Amino acid sequence: MMETSIAKNTYRILGMLLITVTVCISANFMFIVKSPDFTTLDKYSGVIERVEINGNQLDISIDNLDFTYSRWNGRVPDVFSDIKSHQNGVAELLVYNGPSGNAQIYAISIDSEVLVSFDSIIEHRNSLIKWVLIISIIFCSLGFVGVFWGGQLVEMNRKITQN
Length: 163
Fold this sequence. Notes:
The two termini are 16 Å apart. By secondary structure, the chain is α+β, with helices and mostly antiparallel strands. Helix 1 runs antiparallel to helix 3. The chain has helices at residues 2-33, 76-85, 118-162; strands at 42-54, 57-62, 65-69, 90-97, 103-110, 113-116. A 6-stranded antiparallel beta sheet has the order 3-2-1-4-5-6. It contains 3 helices and 6 strands.
């Protein structure tokens, strides 16, 4: 009987832990991926001096100013090859200068050709958020099963193994 009580509480504790961890991770992800408002973006233009892939992001320099194209914007290798093919063109960037001092790129056009638009980045980020929400709902549902029905599962298992 003591083993049954421990098992019931284990399911409840693990279920609550799963729910808590899932909510914390998904909330943190939502905060990281959330896009700024269009009115907060600044426009920079000039000839691209340097372009390099740094991990999962793209670093771009224009007029001795450094900008970052984040992996959350999507298509980092494609954008890198597109910029390399237009290396000497005049680039226009829409940039968010965040409180951390890191300038994040949200749109790129070179010689009036749009490589990445603000709308496509917002659409990509919203689809990421949608998938994280779906996965979070699945994990939270598993946690709720453990919290609310874990004890009943232990009892059913105990009755089956006794017979």
